[in-house]
Design brief:
The chain is of the alpha+beta class and 133 residues long. The protein has three helices and six strands. The longest helix has 8 residues.
């Protein structure tokens, strides 16, 4: 029998997401101080962002997200699925809060003039009192 490989094929409006690690501020501060701490599992925050690795066949979700997109979701959203020793989160389209994409920065216009910021005196306006009835 030939070797087979497991692949992920989400159904409908589902997608599989590889979670991005969450760094706690406490762990970061301890690491910066040269300390090693162990957090109890319930104190470790759950990831809320991940990279899309598979998309279902629903045209609506295919029009909204692409493979490689970073998406955000609620910390308890989706179900976990293990494939090839890796853990993925299976999310329905309605569980995705946002898609985070990088776009190229707009090129700088050398002809553009730089304007000074607005001063507080420019933002205050006097409002006439209401007229008596």
């Amino acid at each position: 029998m030939p070797d087979t490989e497991e692949i992920i094929i989400p159904m409908g409006d589902r997608c599989f997401v590889e979670e991005l690690p969450v760094e706690t501020s406490l762990a970061k501060r301890a690491e910066d101080a040269g300390l090693h701490i162990v957090l109890a599992e319930e104190n470790i925050p759950k990831p809320t962002t991940g990279i899309v690795v598979a998309i279902g066949d629903d045209p609506l979700i295919q029009s909204r997200i692409q493979l490689g997109d970073v998406v955000s979701f609620a910390k308890h959203a989706g179900v976990y699925q293990h494939v090839r020793g890796a853990q993925y989160r299976c999310l329905e389209g309605r569980e995705i809060i946002s898609v985070i994409r990088k776009r190229p920065a707009a090129p700088l216009d050398p002809q553009a003039t730089v304007t000074s910021p607005v001063t507080p005196s420019q933002t205050t306006q006097s409002v006439p009192p209401p007229e008596p009835e």
